[in-house]
């Protein structure tokens, strides 16, 4: 079951029954970066402190909706003080395209002074501020995952590096929570470095190198290991949306680890419906909230198209001959 609710996420969350979702996977609007042309949107608050406070309010309601063993997977990007959004755009710019294809609109609410306690060009550390505020509000802050982007948007600044990562925080409602680590294990490297400088082979005379390169391959079946906390996932903008959509490959591990088959995934900032699509492909239910009716309609269209695709694939499988059954008949 996929449900997409149009309107303010807080209003919808307050109407949802308690303990009705297994996990929440979401990416709120970034502070001061985009105007989605809808009243009541989050991200255009007067200060980063007001923005953090608003998110704490939203996720307090999310915590009520989650089961006692529920989790929150929160993707957040950062912004710079006294600049236009996450890439440090100048205040004189009116409209610009970001890597997601979203519009940067010259909005009067953005023509404000640098927030108190920050200086122009300061990185505002929004993700860390939100994570610590949620921790103080009662969440267990369990993990900090780095989303490494192999193909980041080029940046023209000359006095800092080009941003190529964002944060994903794993938070839990309780001390003990559902986490299917087996579902997201990754292959072990299967090899060890063959160039060990400083290692002397017993009986060797002369140099200190055991060899001059190569690699040592393990013998046997490929081993699996616990997933690491740096995830390399390339950006895959959705051409039909004029706003950020996170890649399906980024959130699939969150859904697999955070919910059982048949469980319910919540996304209060539904956007183009990527969370619903990934939940659907992995036999999960999903409930999304989206403030903008145009985006909600887009998400609904994508979900319906995916349902038709999955149904067509199922019928095709049923038409295929079962060679194993025929051979043993």
Automatic annotation (TrEMBL):
Keyword Secreted appears in the UniProt entry: no
GO molecular function annotation: DNA binding; N-methyltransferase activity; site-specific DNA-methyltransferase (adenine-specific) activity; site-specific DNA-methyltransferase (cytosine-N4-specific) activity
Keywords: DNA-binding, Methyltransferase, Restriction system, S-adenosyl-L-methionine, Transferase
Enzyme superclass (EC): transferase
Residues annotated as domain DNA methylase N-4/N-6: 22-300
InterPro entries: DNA_methylase_N4/N6 (IPR002941), MeTrfase_CN4_CS (IPR017985), RM_Methyltransferase (IPR001091), SAM-dependent_MTases_sf (IPR029063)
EC numbers on record: 2.1.1.-
Listed GO biological process terms: DNA restriction-modification system; methylation
One Pfam short name: N6_N4_Mtase
Catalytic activity: a 2'-deoxycytidine in DNA + S-adenosyl-L-methionine = an N(4)-methyl-2'-deoxycytidine in DNA + S-adenosyl-L-homocysteine + H(+); a 2'-deoxyadenosine in DNA + S-adenosyl-L-methionine = an N(6)-methyl-2'-deoxyadenosine in DNA + S-adenosyl-L-homocysteine + H(+)
Family in the record: Belongs to the N(4)/N(6)-methyltransferase family. N(4) subfamily.
Protein name: Methyltransferase
Organism from which the protein derives: Tranquillimonas rosea
Phylogenetic placement of the source organism: Bacteria, Pseudomonadati, Pseudomonadota, Alphaproteobacteria, Rhodobacterales
């Amino acid at each position: 079951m996929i449900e997409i609710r149009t309107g303010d996420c807080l209003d919808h969350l307050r109407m949802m029954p308690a303990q009705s979702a297994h996990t929440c996977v979401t990416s709120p609007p970034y502070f001061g970066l985009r105007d989605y042309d809808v009243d009541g949107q989050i991200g255009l608050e007067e200060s980063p402190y007001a923005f953090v406070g608003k998110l704490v309010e939203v996720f307090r309601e999310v915590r009520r909706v989650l089961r006692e063993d529920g989790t929150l997977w929160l993707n957040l990007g950062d912004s710079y003080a006294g600049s236009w959004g996450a890439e440090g755009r100048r205040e004189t710019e009116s409209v610009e395209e970001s890597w997601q294809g979203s519009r940067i609109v010259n909005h009067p609410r953005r023509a404000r002074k640098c927030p108190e306690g920050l200086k122009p060009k300061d990185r505002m550390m929004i993700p860390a501020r939100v994570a610590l505020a949620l921790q103080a509000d009662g969440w267990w802050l369990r993990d900090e995952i780095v989303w490494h982007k192999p193909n980041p948007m080029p940046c023209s600044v000359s006095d800092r590096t080009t941003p190529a990562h964002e944060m994903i925080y794993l938070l839990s409602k309780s001390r003990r929570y559902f986490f299917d680590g087996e579902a997201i294990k990754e292959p072990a490297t299967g090899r060890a470095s063959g160039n060990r400088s400083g290692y002397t082979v017993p009986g060797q005379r002369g140099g200190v190198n055991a060899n001059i390169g190569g690699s040592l391959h393990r013998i046997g079946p490929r081993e699996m290991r616990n997933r690491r906390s740096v995830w390399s996932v390339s950006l895959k903008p959705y051409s039909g949306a004029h706003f950020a959509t996170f890649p399906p490959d980024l959130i699939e591990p969150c859904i697999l680890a955070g919910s059982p088959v048949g469980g319910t995934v919540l996304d209060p900032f539904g956007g183009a419906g990527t969370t619903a699509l990934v939940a659907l492909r992995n036999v999960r239910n999903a409930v999304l909230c989206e403030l903008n009716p145009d985006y909600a309609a887009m998400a609904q269209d994508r979900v319906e198209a995916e349902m038709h695709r999955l149904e067509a694939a199922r019928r095709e499988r049923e038409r295929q001959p079962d060679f194993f059954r025929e051979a043993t008949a």
